[in-house]
Design goal:
The chain is an alpha+beta fold and about 300 residues long. It is built from 5 helices and 16 strands.
């Protein structure tokens, strides 16, 4: 069994409009834009990162905003809901705030004993706020949302799957523990994790497969401390039969990827070197940062990107 995974690192999704996406996560949800760079495979597209003050592992939602991209179709084989942690008793604040800003899909319920507010992002993204009484992580407060209600980071994520047995086995191998079941949803928890500790598996045997597009999660990343631990995880996965990519340098972390039995793309990412490797913490996300191989083309790249401030 793998013992080095600490919970979630980040979740990466797709969007249809960079400005709209930036406004929603920084102004509506009050997260910090900790990095603006480009898609390493397509530098005509931003890669935007939102999180806490430093972009700590377990807090960062990232997006590839492909302009005018077709909306995705929700279904199985994907992360159907990305869940953020907020203090206990704050869902009324968030309900009122999101309603006032025209956010769609607002719906309150209770899951595994915690109050949840479900809602949609600008492209129909499946998002939720989950109340937690004991999340001690410090929130980002630079966008005017009070400390006692602000988002702390991820709580976890919910996968939509035809069947869950193979993914349950994989999560157990990765160090997660089965924590309960409600209806067709099975919960797994990472003991002593980084706060973004929960994975829920929803069994939806009659649901069609998802079609990826704007609003869809592209992949979900799990955190390890450093490259040494990452290599140990990679070997353990490969020894178990998974096809894992070589280590890829993403400038702010190193990454490996593999496809799960349920169809979800997993990444294992390092906590090092972090988002302040090329920007002072006080100015994270303010300037466009490019991978070295694209720096010579900066003028052309900047001319093709829509400015984020309207």
């Amino acid at each position: 069994m793998i013992k080095d995974i600490k919970g979630l690192h980040h979740v990466t999704s797709m969007a249809s409009d960079a400005r709209q996406n930036n406004h929603f996560f920084t102004q509506t949800l009050g997260l910090r834009r900790v990095k603006q760079t480009v898609n390493f495979d397509d530098p005509s597209v931003y890669h935007l990162y939102y999180g806490d003050e430093t972009g700590s592992a377990g807090t960062v939602m990232t997006y590839f905003p492909f302009q005018d991209m077709m909306l995705g179709r929700p279904g199985v084989g994907e992360v159907g809901e990305t869940q953020f942690s907020v203090p206990k008793g704050t869902l009324k604040y968030w309900q009122d705030r999101l309603l006032a800003q025209g956010v769609a899909g607002l719906e309150q319920d209770t899951v595994f004993g915690a109050n949840r507010l479900r809602f949609m992002g600008p492209d129909g993204d499946g998002l939720a706020l989950i109340e937690s009484a004991d999340d001690a992580r410090a929130p980002w407060l630079g966008d005017g949302i009070p400390d006692d209600v602000a988002i702390r980071g991820f709580a976890g994520a919910r996968f939509s799957l035809h069947e869950t047995a193979a993914t349950e086995e994989l999560l157990g191998f990765m160090g997660y523990q089965r924590a309960g079941k409600e209806g067709d949803v099975t919960r797994f928890i990472m003991p002593d994790g980084n706060g973004a500790d929960t994975i829920d598996l929803a069994a939806l045997p009659q649901t069609p497969f998802a079609r990826q597009g704007a609003g869809s999660v592209h992949h979900i990343a799990f955190a390890v401390d450093n490259r040494e631990k990452q290599l140990e995880v990679r070997k353990a996965l490969m020894d178990t039969g998974y096809q894992v990519t070589p280590v890829i340098d993403r400038d702010y972390f190193w990454a490996i990827y593999f496809r799960t039995p349920g169809g979800v793309l997993f990444e294992v990412a390092t906590n090092e070197p972090g988002f302040n490797r090329d920007e002072d913490t006080a100015h994270l996300g303010e300037a466009l940062k490019l991978p070295g191989r694209y720096e010579a083309f900066r003028d052309q790249i900047e001319a093709n990107l829509v400015p984020l401030a309207a």
